[in-house]
Design brief:
The chain is of the alpha+beta class and 113 residues long. The chain is built from one helix and five strands. It is elongated and about 90 Å long.
């Protein structure tokens, strides 16, 4: 019979005994802290903390599943994205140097004399 009785949610003087949504605020705060810490961990894992520095210069090369490449350059607060194409260009210019691709995938640029 005791289980069928209604529980009191208010004390005798009219104050609420418990707040039914008090735990939701704590869950929201905990989730925000978790999300920010995951973002910082990802930036540190990929050594991308320079992207947050307003005075740094960063160049990234991104290649998608279809093989298209995109060069992303950040100088100060300006970010510029350029797509790489297979089109052959012609014109006048001067040779600046030579680039070599090493067996481990790195590219080394040697300036010309």
């Amino acid at each position: 019979m005791r289980l069928l009785q209604r529980r009191r949610r208010f004390s005798l003087d009219g104050e609420a005994l418990e707040d039914p949504i008090a735990g939701v605020a704590n869950l929201f705060d905990a989730s925000i802290v978790f999300i920010v810490s995951m973002m910082i961990a990802l930036f540190m894992a990929y050594n991308m903390m320079d992207l947050l520095d307003p005075t740094s210069e960063v160049t990234l090369v991104k290649k998608n599943a279809s093989g298209e490449m995109e060069i992303i350059t950040k100088k100060g607060n300006e970010i510029k994205a350029s797509k790489v194409t297979d089109e052959k260009l012609s014109g006048r210019g001067e040779r600046l140097g030579t680039a070599y691709k090493l067996p481990d995938g790195r590219v080394v640029y040697v300036p010309g004399n």
